[in-house]
Amino acid sequence: MSDRHKARATIVPRTSSLRVAAALRTALAAGYGLRDFRADLLAGLVVALVAVPLSMALAIASGVPPHHGLYTAIVAGGVVALLGGSAFQVSGPTAAFVVILAPISAAFGLGGLMLATVMAGALLLAAGFARLGRLVEFIPYPVTAGFTAGIATVIATLQLKDLLGLQIPEMPERFLEKVAAIATALPTIHRADLAIGAATLLILVVLPRLTRRIPAPLVALPLAALVAYVLTKMVSGFDVATINSRFSYVLHGVTHQGIPQFPPRPMIPWQAAGPDGRPLVLSLDLFRSLAGPAFAIAILGAIESLLSAVVADGMTGTKHDPDAELIAQGVGNLASPFFGGIAATGALARTATNIRCGARTPVAAIVHALTVLAAVICLAPLLGYLPMASMAALLLIVAWNMSEAKHVLHVVRVAPSSDVFVLLTCFGLTVVFDMVISVSAGVVLAAILFMRRMADTASVQLIHAAPEHAHAFLPPGTLVYGIGGPLFFGAAQKAMSALRTIEDHVRTVILDLSDVPIMDATGLVNLESAIERLQKAGVHIILAGVQPDVLRVIAKAGWKRDRALLTIRGSLDDAVALAWARHAVAGA
Description:
With 588 residues, the chain is α/β, with parallel strands linked by helices. It has helices spanning 3-9, 22-29, 34-61, 66-83, 98-129, 141-158, 160-164, 175-184, 191-210, 216-234, 243-246, 284-316, 322-335, 348-356, 363-383, 388-403, 405-414, 417-432, 435-457, 492-496, 521-536, 548-556, 572-587; strands spanning 91-92, 248-251, 254-257, 345-346, 459-462, 478-484, 508-515, 540-544, 566-569.
């Protein structure tokens, strides 16, 4: 990417006000010409070709008809591109959402899923206005790697049903029960579905190794649909499940097969079908029941979109505005259900494709949304011929890429055992339970391990006199202790334990705090306790080299009011000089 394009895409967040539509405004302000539009147009077209089958497959995996995935790419994809903080982000339905959305749609129906998405959009919007965009940086890598690999495992496992054409009347809710149901149904493998799915999978794996100029799904899925159609017509008994045979919609009271050939239409999300097929009835109990799922959608949406934006920054050398991106994701998820869409977030694979195809501004993502809209209007009847086994094969590839299996295995081999424990714990909790439990437990575990490591860095050591140091010659009865590391609740007590016993002849203790960057309330209490013990023994305390943040904590605690046995000096040399002065006065 040229320096001019980097300058156009780089977004410097303001500290005084939020910059909604930061990426688009920055691009237009830098000058947008015909050459830029051509680059964005080509990139948007290519991304849309990938997004059309993928959006349908992800909607199916989430438990809703495929056209709702297309509507999500159109509405949320366009809105986020207009209002977002990343110049290259492409938003829409993603594989990470599948493990969250599928249980919601099973328990609350399409209407409940849409209502939960609206609630999640409001949470994302609030997070953006509260400037919480930077918090994703505090989620450790083992946590994100663990739950991402877990999500990929769940997605891949669930695709075996359609890939093999298994007959499972009702899929259980729990993952382990689903695995058992799939294993039990293995004798019902349908050879035609297996053949089409395997052929699709082969093309999706081999074609990228031959050329990356043509997106593999653009070749594999239409070819699979054509072969399946021809074999169905020519070979007796050859039959595969397709979107047309699996899904239908009602128009003017008439049921039609496949995907509706009209654009997203305004609707009231909660008036869509609930679990019993009837519209939902809004109630406090319903909102209470959906609060947890909505929170899960919001958390994963924030993590996924901001991580995708960070990866895009790494690929382009630019900088996104995380708060503007959260606001855009919030508005996108608020708007999407009112046009038949479901939850959306930043899609890493589509964003990377957008960049590789030469995108320069958010216009490329807008072109992607408009192209998906054109595909719905013009190609809906043809999309209905796509085999379900081919869609499952596509999601298998997505799950494999999402898992980053080679990288995760490398981390397991070389990372510290504590990080490996966090990663494997998050992986297991995601597979067995869900992503919210996994991330919550993972962040808590990582925080505890981090505090333990920081506690190990905090210490109090007696500094022995040496000729090369300025404090080499100390007055009699004077000791210097060097305190290192942050004094917070995980480390303070351990660090201060060294000051519990002081010999009787000591009259002055210098505490060198120059290596203490921060101190919290627990550190303050422990330091106060140590100083009080020394003061009761008649020892004068000199604090040396106190850093500004620590000095503010000390001043707020009122230590400056008690000067009888406590003095603060700016450096260790000044503290030693004061000790000599006190010794001289005492000797006189």
